[in-house]
Specification:
Length: 160
C-alpha cells in the first residue's frame, strides 16, 4: 500500500509561523514521525509540499493508478479551491483531510470548506498529532477495503 501526503501553502513554515496556533513542530519532524509509522506498518509513503494550487492539483492527479490513499492538508486552499476538490473527486482515491488547528472555531472564512465533502474523513484541531491519527485512520480504511474485496471474491467463487 502506498500513501501520498500532500501539504498546501505555508505549511513549509511550520515551527516558525503563528506558533500559538500551529505549535513549534516543523514539517520535517511531522513527516519523520509519519515515515516511522509507515515503516512499522509496511506502508510506502511519499511527501509533497507546495505553495501553488496547480502543483497540488498535479500531485493529486499523479496519485491515480499509483497510490491507494491520500492524506492532505490543503491549508488556505481548503476554503477556496474548487480545483483541488475536483482533483480529489477525479482520482477517486480514499482521502483524509487534516487540519492542525480547529478551523471551526477560528475566523468565519475558515468555516467554508471546499474539500471535506469529497474526503473519506476529516481530522481537525489535534495539532500535529492529527497526521498520526490520519495514518491510523488510513490503515483502517485500507483494511476495510481489503476485507470487502476478499468477501466479494469469495462470493464470486461460490457463485461459479
Ligand atoms: C490549516 C488551517 C487553514 O485555515 C490555514 O489556512 C492553514 C492551516 C491547519 O492546518 O490548521 O494554512 O489548514
Amino acid at each position: 500500500m502506498k500513501i501520498v501526503v500532500i501539504q498546501g501553502p505555508n505549511l513549509n513554515m511550520l515551527g516558525v509561523r503563528e506558533q500559538q496556533i500551529y505549535g513549534p513542530m516543523k514539517l520535517e519532524q511531522i513527516h519523520a514521525q509519519m515515515k516511522d509509522f509507515a515503516a512499522q506498518n509496511k506502508i510506502e509513503i511519499e511527501f509533497f509540499q507546495s505553495n501553488l494550487e496547480g502543483e497540488l492539483v498535479d500531485r493529486i492527479q499523479e496519485c491515480f493508478g499509483d497510490a491507494q490513499g491520500i492524506i492532505i492538508n490543503p491549508a488556505a486552499y481548503t476554503h477556496t479551491s474548487i480545483a483541488i476538490r475536483d482533483a480529489i473527486s477525479a482520482v477517486g482515491i480514499p482521502t483524509i483531510e487534516v487540519h492542525i488547528s480547529n478551523i471551526h472555531r477560528r475566523e468565519e472564512f475558515r468555516k467554508t470548506n471546499m474539500i471535506a465533502p469529497v474526503c473519506s474523513s476529516s481530522i481537525v484541531g489535534f495539532g500535529p498529532f492529527g497526521y498520526h491519527l490520519a495514518m491510523v485512520g488510513m490503515t483502517q480504511i485500507m483494511t476495510e477495503i481489503k476485507a470487502a474485496q476478499e468477501a466479494q471474491q469469495k462470493a464470486a467463487q461460490t457463485a461459479e
